[in-house]
Design brief:
heterodimer, A: globular, B: about 90 residues, 3 strands, about 15% helix
């Protein structure tokens, strides 16, 4: 079963030596390639998991036009994931390609942020999540177009146009639902409130993020935090919504400590290639 | 007021220099979203470089009941087709 981690003997041994202070094990950042591999998983897994989430709307969206918009978003994101994960496989140099990484890793090995694995909820919550994520992802990709890693820079240059559209359309929906009927407004307030606690993780500069930024490969997330806040505040203002109070940040996705939702996503997403390893299309 | 979003007619310019052509319609709550719905519905396979949307209710159509007076009189006036002219060699797209 994809969602049940297998605990190996050496993991138990490592656990016995682990810091008992309650901190998560830091991701390996000492080796350049390991950090780059980890960083590429973050980029790829963010897009892959959000793409998978959005595809759940297919056939269920409020109208056929919105259905297509969400499916287009999902396809853009899965396309980005393919580039990042294929490249991660090359960097790892252990014979795994993008498909192998997508369909044969379990929850603990996924490196996406917690925001993208959150359930869709209603359309308002989906759009709130999309707006808060795409605004960040667009700024991230803008920075990554200047990455010292030419492959990352090239993928980011292509993806930033896609993500800019995701941001625009989701911002339009935040504004329309927030400044809409009593019901749409209440739903958008709930949606923003639900997703808000996952924003700080987007900007968390842990060891891997810092090491990649120091080498000019990754982005310094602090560099666009103020721009992000300005953008989000201006859209919420246009939506006549209050900026929510900051909640206790929830971290962990970048080190594999996910919410219970990710296992359920993977069990759906990974079922076919695991049950039918020879399947091809 | 209807609970359904209004209908918008969609026109796509497939490349620079060509006219916008009617391709279909979308539902949307307003013009800005209509342009985006048109983009997502009708240009996802590189079909266009420019989009127009027009609220369907803004279009005034001929009445099918008037066909006899509107269109039938043209049927026997074949000489109005510009096919009686000799086109010089080398002139294309006419």
């Amino acid at each position: 079963m994809p969602s049940l981690p297998v605990i190996e003997k050496d993991v138990e041994r490592r656990a016995e030596q682990a810091n008992p202070g309650g901190a998560f094990d830091p991701a390996p950042a000492d080796s350049g390639n390991l950090a780059l591999f980890d960083y590429l998983l973050r980029l790829g897994d963010d897009s892959l998991i959000l793409g998978q989430r959005l595809s759940e709307w297919c056939g269920h969206a409020p109208s056929v036009e919105v259905d297509l918009s969400l499916a287009n978003f999902a396809l853009d994101l899965v396309g980005q994931a393919t580039f990042f994960l294929d490249y991660a496989g090359k960097v790892e140099n252990a014979g795994r390609d993008g498909d192998r990484l997508a369909f044969h890793r379990d929850v603990l090995d996924y490196r996406n942020c917690l925001m993208v694995e959150q359930p869709n909820g209603d359309f308002a919550r989906t759009m709130a999540r999309q707006f808060l994520f795409s605004t960040w992802q667009k700024m991230l990709f803008e920075h990554l177009t200047g990455s010292a890693d030419q492959h990352i820079a090239a993928v980011a240059a292509k993806a930033v146009k896609e993500v800019a559209y995701h941001e625009e359309l989701s911002a339009e929906w935040v504004i329309r639902l927030g400044d809409g009927t009593d019901e749409s407004r209440a739903r958008m307030i709930d949606g923003i409130d639900w997703v808000w606690r996952f924003v700080p993780e987007l900007f968390d500069m842990d060891e891997v993020a810092s090491a990649m930024a120091a080498q000019g490969i990754g982005a310094d997330l602090a560099a666009f935090r103020a721009d992000y806040d300005r953008k989000v505040h201006s859209v919420l203002e246009a939506a006549t919504l209050e900026v929510p109070n900051d909640q206790r940040p929830i971290l962990g996705g970048r080190t594999g400590h996910h919410s219970e939702h990710l296992g359920h996503i993977l069990s759906t997403m990974q079922f076919l290639p695991r049950a039918y390893p020879d399947a091809a299309w | 007021m209807s609970k359904d979003w209004p209908l918008w007619e969609v026109f796509v310019r497939s490349k620079g220099g060509l006219s916008h052509r009617h391709v279909g319609s979308v539902h949307a709550p307003d013009a800005e979203i209509a342009v985006r719905h048109a983009r997502d519905t009708y240009t996802r396979r590189m079909e266009g470089v420019s989009l127009w949307v027009v609220e369907s209710s803004a279009i005034h159509a001929s009445d099918p009941g008037d066909d006899a007076t509107m269109f039938a009189p043209a049927e026997d006036k074949i000489y109005r087709h510009p096919t009686f002219y000799n086109i010089p060699d080398g002139i294309s797209h006419i």
